[in-house]
Amino acid sequence: AAPITLDRLRKVYPDGTVAVEELSLEIGSGEVTVLIGPSGCGKSTVLRMVNRLIEPSGGRILIDGSDATTADPNELRRTIGYVIQSVGLFPHQTVRANVGTVPRMLGWEKRRITERTDELLELVGLPAGQYAKRYPHELSGGQRQRVGFARALAADPRVLLMDEPFSAVDPINRGRLQDEFLRLREAVRKTTILVTHDLQEAIKLGDRIAVLSDHAQLQQYATPAELLAR
Ligand code: ADP
Ligand code: ADP
């Protein structure tokens, strides 16, 4: 795992929207930091900058001390696993192919990819013998989300970015999946930034919670216990 530093991070979109005014945050190695705040306050923008899907307008992002904004994209793919709300699985690829996406991009040998994907499917509770050859539409929403986790973990990233990972899952399965995440978390400690607008979820899953208001202004940065005591 690797610590992450957001140093006066700023994003103004081309149309002039100030999505992130100036955000500084220290995220400890192996910790889950939750970004919580109202819709439109800039949470996804922060994640997308860390993942380099968009360029910051100012400030720096340090992952384990090195500047992520100038890192080689392939290197970043190795470093970061990304989980999004709608999972974003490729519908015409099998579960195994989906999980192997990043290793394939990194040019791993086929045999190694299969070993790794099957190991991960086991880890997320979808044994390969039963699930590897299915297509996403042959899975429940919760199962698809697990495939999404497996895919994010495939190349053993040091950092995990999760954008509303449970919000597309029905409320009953959401609780189960959150428990699953906590269990997985014990097995694989990753520095994680998780975005949500659900306070319960933040308190359940976060080591630290960053409460944001419009333009990603940091209102509080505290542990769940500290937050509840206030
Ligand atoms: P959140 O994830 O907290 O809902 P976002 O980061 O998606 O917030 O959005 C932050 C602000 O930036 C919002 O006002 C949103 O409308 C705006 N925004 C997001 N993407 C773009 C874009 N590509 N161009 C212009 N404005 C954008
Ligand atoms: P959940 O209760 O987790 O939401 P579902 O009710 O959607 O799950 O599915 C129950 C079981 O049936 C799951 O193990 C799922 O993998 C399997 N299943 C769902 N859709 C299909 C399908 N189209 N083909 C094969 N198996 C399926």
From TrEMBL:
One of its GO terms (molecular function) is ATP binding. Keywords: ATP-binding, Nucleotide-binding, Transport. Residues 4-230 form the ABC transporter domain. The keyword Transport applies. It comes from the Bacteria. Belongs to the ABC transporter superfamily. This is ABC transporter ATP-binding protein. It comes from Dactylosporangium vinaceum.
